[in-house]
Design brief:
Elements lengths: L9 H12 L6 E2 H7 L6 H11 L9 E2 L12 H10 L4 E2 L2 E2 L3
Parallel strand pairs: 1-2
Antiparallel strand pairs: 3-4
Helix pairs in contact: 2-3
The protein binds a DNA duplex (13 and 13 nucleotides) through helix 2, helix 3 and strand 2.
DNA sequence: AGGGTGACCCGCT
DNA sequence: CAGCGGGCCACCC
C-alpha cells in the first residue's frame, strides 16, 4: 500500500496545529485531537493524517489511543515508547500509566 | 461515483 | 478480561 501526502489538506493542518500544542511530558488521545478540531468523530482520519505525514515538526509520538495504550508509530512502536519515556511518561506493558 | 485502506473507538459476547 | 464486529472519517485510484 502506498503512502500519500495529506499534509496539504486543511484537515491535516488542523490536526498538526493541535498536536503541536502538546507540551513536553504531556500526551493526548486521537479522539481528543479530533474533538479539538471540531470533528469528534474524525478520530480515524486523525490517525491517518499523522501516519501519512509523520513530520518531525509535530510531536506525533505524544498522541495515543483513548484507552491510553501506545498505539502505532511509523518509525516503530518501540521508538514511540522510547521517546515518551524520554519525556518522563511512564509506560507499563504498552500502556500509559500516568499522564 | 464506488471501493479500499488506515497509527481508531465502543459495545457486546 | 480478552476478542470480534460494526461504525465513524478523510483520502487515493
Amino acid at each position: 500500500m502506498r503512502r500519500y501526502n495529506l499534509s496539504n489538506t486543511d484537515f491535516a493542518e488542523k490536526v498538526y496545529r493541535e498536536v503541536r500544542r502538546i507540551k513536553k511530558g504531556q500526551i493526548a488521545t486521537y479522539k481528543e485531537i479530533a474533538l479539538a478540531i471540531g470533528k469528534p468523530m474524525s478520530f480515524r482520519a486523525v490517525g491517518n493524517a499523522l501516519n501519512k505525514n509523520a513530520s518531525k515538526t509535530v510531536p506525533c509520538h505524544r498522541v495515543v489511543k483513548s484507552d491510553l495504550s501506545v498505539g502505532g508509530f511509523n518509525r516503530g512502536t518501540k521508538e514511540k515508547i522510547k521517546r515518551l519515556s524520554s519525556e518522563g511518561i511512564r509506560i507499563k506493558n504498552g500502556k500509559i500509566v500516568s499522564r
